[in-house]
User: Fold this.
Amino acid sequence: MIIDFQHHYTPPELMEHGGAGILRLDEHGNPNYKFNPLLADLPAHVRMMDHAGIDAAVLSCGGGFDQPNFATCRLINDRMRQAEGDYPGRFIGLAHVPALDPLAAVPELKRCAVELDFPGVAIASELQGQALDAEALRPFWKACADLGLYVFIHPLPRVIAWPQMYMDDLGRMLGWEFSLMAAAVRLINSGLLDELPTLKIQISHFAGGIGRYLPRIRGLQDRERNGTAAIPRHGRKPRQPFDHYLQYRLFYDCCGWSSPDDAAEQGAEWVRAGLNELAKSQLLFATDYPQAVEHDDEVLAYVNAVRALGADARSVLEGANVEKLIPNLGERLNPRAA
Assistant:
């Protein structure tokens, strides 16, 4: 069984339109989000899934990753639930909430967990310029842990505030991945995972490819040797060794590459690197459809290329770790068999 853990859907009411799609620019003229028409085309999603052999997809919405407007979040959540009902057993919705507003976010999280039966919630790697370990987000994290909702962290839907990124599409090319890595390190060092031992977090794109930087990260986590132990904000350490959280507390999806040319080969190489760098017990299959890949044959070729990597990759592809985040998966997929 193949479950796609990063599959994007935007309700038609929230789509921006312009020809074959519109590339949204920020106030500095930087590209930060592409409104692919397929985002709102659920029949096309199902057609692709059937073609590629994907049984079900976990839906998230780019317009809700860092959305302060409660009404918009509620609309997204209701449309996610509608997608589940319209295509039984094919889609699994995630909650979207104004996470920095606990008076609105916590009740909506409860509604999504109890009434809508969503297994998780989607947020960005930064929220209105605040890091995910900000004190203002503690009520959000605690509510997720209490409700048993896993948290899916996607790159922020904007360019990180660094002028050197305001060129060459660097915000999407590198800035998004840098933001994911920074979020992972900060969440670990903040002690959040120690405070909330049941909290489960999925970070996009192998946490921005964090495995390739681990030798450097591990070295600089030695605060005493590097002289930072007594420096405010720079001497933080979690209770357990840093790798404990990477290997046992965080989950990672395997999308994040972005190449229309040789998509299967590029995707397979990205997955191969992640398998070598991070714990296989924490890896989840994902396509990033319809953003990174948008053609049915590309997705099929990617699935086949991952399968060809060997037993470890097939285990991830076929969902060995799915029920760690979605424990009642069988019940969710039963309507399809009926």
Residues 170-189 form the longest helix (20 residues).
